[in-house]
Amino acid sequence: MKEQKVLITKSEIEINNLIQNGWKVISITAQSDDFCVLFEREKLSPPVSPGKFQAQIQAEINDIIGLSSEDLTIPQKEKEMIIKSLIKNHWNRRNAAQELGISERTIYRKLKEYKLA
């Protein structure tokens, strides 16, 4: 199912923002100093509940490390914490390191050690 959006603007930035968010330009018409742009995209599925999202992340982490959360050794638990922090911080290593209370250099070293980089 598709959804459509009409935007009347002078700003190319607004148009580019919509394109970057998955909208496809269907038509553009000029009206005085403004542009009238018709956009279309596939309708987004409803958001996943936070609990289900956390379970999905945990399942992905378990696949990466190969064990259930209860059976983890200290290095495996460390790896899990790093992965969770990276996911939470959209893979921004500096922010993940700050959240974990370690240096940015340490997180790079750990990623290499755990073959995640």
What is the structure about, briefly put?
By secondary structure, this protein is α+β, with helices and mostly antiparallel strands.
Write a structural description.
The protein has 117 residues and is an alpha+beta fold. It has two domains: 2-42; 50-113, Arc Repressor Mutant, subunit A, CATH 1.10.10. The protein has helices at 12-20, 50-65, 74-88, 93-100, 104-113; strands spanning 2-9, 24-31, 34-42. The radius of gyration is 21 Å and the shape is elongated. It starts with a strand and ends with a helix.
Fold blueprint:
Blueprint lengths: L1 E8 L2 H9 L3 E8 L2 E9 L7 H16 L8 H15 L4 H8 L3 H10 L4
Antiparallel strand pairs: 1-3, 2-3
- The count of β-strands is 3
Helix content: 40-55%
Portion in strands: 15-25%
Overall form:
elongated
The name of the CATH topology of the largest domain is Arc Repressor Mutant, subunit A
Q: Mind telling me the CATH superfamily name of the largest domain?
A: Homeodomain-like
Features:
alpha+beta, Arc Repressor Mutant, subunit A, 2 domains, three-stranded antiparallel β-sheet, 3 strands
